[in-house]
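Message: Just now I want nothing more than another pair of eyes on a protein record. I am handing you a single protein, as its sequence and its fold in token form. As I understand it, each token names a local backbone shape. Take your time, and here it is.
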Amino acid sequence: METNEQVKELVRQKYSEIALQDKETNQSSCCGAGGCSTEVYNIMADDYTQLEGYNPDADLGLGCGLPTQFAKIKKGDVVIDLGSGAGNDAFIARHETGETGKVIGIDFTPAMIERARQNNEVRGFNNVEFRQGDIEKMPVTANTADVIVSNCVLNLVPNKDGVIKEIYRVLKPAGHFSISDIVLEGQLPKEIREAAEMYAGCVAGAIQKQVYLELIEANGFKNITMQKDKAIIIPDDILSNYLTADQIAEFKQSGTGIRSITVYAEKPTKEEKACCGTDCCN
């Protein structure tokens, strides 16, 4: 069993490789680096091409949703993108927040930060920046962001509770987040969960959907809303790398589900938080 730091280093190494690849190479794989299925082009990512602000060279095909589409970003907002990669969601957020706002992308892979900064330099955006850092300890002061977005990143982080606490800290009172992620319904076979390649880009780091939502609620967020919920179907030629034919059949009949969800939640205002510190909320 890997420690949290070992898992994070595995992810860092994998995404350092991915940063040097093109979208077509990444999308041919469920796990981001190297082809692993002939049945599908991509089983996770949604289509970004219709969104304003989309830049193809910043899209590595690594997401599992469209959080910026649902994030209710307004002109002048400060937006933080967790796990910003090559800058895809950050540039779309910049279109929404406009020249009067600001976008901060955070990624802990140096190669991704370098690629994002290169993409930003080409565009000449002076209100977009990319900071190298761990989203469990964001290099951002408290009460900074109006909106936080993230696309298929928390499932890679061992300490999800720690990240959610950091999201709460960094959001302004009455700020909100919209996060796309991979979650489970039921238990995955251990062969899939323990596979390093799956952890570094697919589903093995995912937790139960209900546990995920409970973590958000337990950390003080309100108005928790499921903005999108879709099934992720892993093709047989991927499953066959980890399971026998009989195990695949059992897995399909087990009721276990892999879901891509987009969740919205709000940080309470100062008044609401103060109220709930007394008996006036009971």
